[in-house]
Known about the structure:
The complex is a heterodimer of chains A (108) and B (112).
Chain A: E1 5-7, E2 10-14, E3 19-24, E4 31-37, E5 43-50, E6 55-58, E7 61-66, E8 71-76, E9 85-91, E10 97-98, E11 102-107
Parallel strand pairs in A: 2-11
Antiparallel strand pairs in A: 1-3, 3-8, 4-5, 4-9, 6-7, 7-8, 9-10, 9-11
Chain B: E1 5-7, E2 10-13, E3 19-24, E4 31-37, E5 44-50, E6 53-56, E7 65-68, E8 75-79, E9 88-95, E10 102-103, E11 107-111
Parallel strand pairs in B: 2-11
Antiparallel strand pairs in B: 1-3, 3-8, 4-5, 4-9, 5-6, 7-8, 9-10, 9-11
Amino acid sequence: SQQGEEDPQALSIQEGENATMNCSYKTSINNLQWYRQNSGRGLVHLILIRSNEREKHSGRLRVTLDTSKKSSSLLITASRAADTASYFCATGDYKLSFGAGTTVTVRA
Amino acid sequence: GAGVSQTPSNKVTEKGKYVELRCDPISGHTALYWYRQSLGQGPEFLIYFQGTGAADDSGLPNDRFFAVRPEGSVSTLKIQRTERGDSAVYLCASSEGPGELFFGEGSRLTVL
């Protein structure tokens, strides 16, 4: 079963705009991760946020975590065409559970 | 190698045939994982190894699926009597410990 659920399923934005996607999960966690997958490729790790952290930044990425609401958000600022991909949240330590993902399309 | 390597990248087989998918993890990574991904879905956990032993095989769908990692490095996912529903991308990942997983490019299996 999949622990995380991303919202929205799909997102289309103009280059330069920000993209925000959300993840909700069911059980308590030690950490939450976000991954990116370009079409036909493997997943690439973006960022890990621990349960005692509320916000984390990495370049143009900003992740928040609200353990009371069992939710996380991923913000991509100043999007580029190369950000077009599917984005997944994942929970777990070794055995990760992934959501169905948010497909982001950045229009030039 | 520099990253996780999976072979073959594409495999087309007929219903009922036996298939082997190979994963070569990042050198030194003790944990190795197999996931399956269907179109439009997130990766679905199959099995993970710590060293040579399967630490958790709860995701294997049935006894037609089996995986080994005899020397604690390369792993092989074996599927017997393939069915059309087995068609998917099989992803392998490795890690040093809990946390970030490093994924290969996947093996796309098509069962006709």
